[in-house]
Amino acid sequence: MPLLPLAIGWGGVLLTVGCNSATKRKWLTTFFDGVPSEHPPTNVVTATAADTNLVAGAAQKPAPVAPSEPNYFGHQPFSQEKCSSCHDSQFGQGMKKPLPGLCWDCHKDFLASAKVKHQPAENGECASCHDPHQASNKELLRKTGKDLCLDCHEAPVDKGKSRHQPAENGECLTCHNPHASGQKGLLVKPDGKLCFDCHDTFEKQLQAAKAKHLPVENGECASCHRPHESDQKKLLAKPDGKLCAECHEDVQKQVAAAKVKHQPVENGECASCHKPHQSENKKLLTKAGDKLCYECHDQLQQQITKAAYKHDPAGNGDCLACHTAHQSSEPGLLLKDRRQVCFECHEEKDMLVVKGHTGAPQKPCIECHDPHAGGDRNLLKPDKPAN
User: Is 252 helix (H, G, I), strand (E, B) or coil?
Assistant: First the structure.
């Protein structure tokens, strides 16, 4: 019997018995030699450790991700292929109207009632910021954030040591309107109200304060602070003392002409005694009465505290009864000549009849008396005889 027909016949039988691998092998070995065993050894060449690492490395390497298509924002007439909404014809580039008049056909004329206008908007140069057809940025902007603004404006924070965070972050629209505004500098709100959008805790403190610095109360933040950057801490427009002298020029002149100057005042350290915005104390003082003075004069505080007898003004914390806070023509920042300042409270005629004052009417009082405190009821210094 010929083998070919026999094989074909048995092949038909194989098709009828199913696709089980064990069954197939059994039938194949019946008619053919060299059928592989049921579990043949692998014929894959054993890889070296180096080869294995290479293969593993290749397997772990992520496949390159195809760049995603950018999201585009289309101008509605362009997206709807209504070219003639803006152009003279479907196939020409000429405009139906000059800008910005053409834009006002669809958009509200936000320049009509504005006091302050952004120059490109006022000049009809809408396309200097916006793409007329489509853009990858919202509002059809050609660039985003500060990158767009810096096409015309110099970087506001490149030079300053102290920088306002919104300016440094390029968040120009936090404070400025890009088209028009009722405020100078295209601010979205008046000076003080704008600042309180972020500095709301400070606003609450100001509202509750007893004493308020007039520029702060009037919302004139920019009279002391620069809005973008400064070489001074706290974005101050000038160093501490020079800034204060812009308004308090009378104090500056008095200090300049004085023989004796309070060191903090001479150093321009106004904020060491005064709060710049608001305070619970008169004169915007950081602390009341002697508590403020004792911030520096702590040794005198200890002397007065321990003393058995205290001069009433010193004991009551009324330092300014005898001393001036800024400058004086007298030693010790006294308000008047050393004898005259005592006579503000102690009648001179009464002092002259005191036994210990006989023969010494012109001597300064502090030659014998301590002006603040002591162990003697008359505040006599230890080396001076009692009256």
Answer: helix
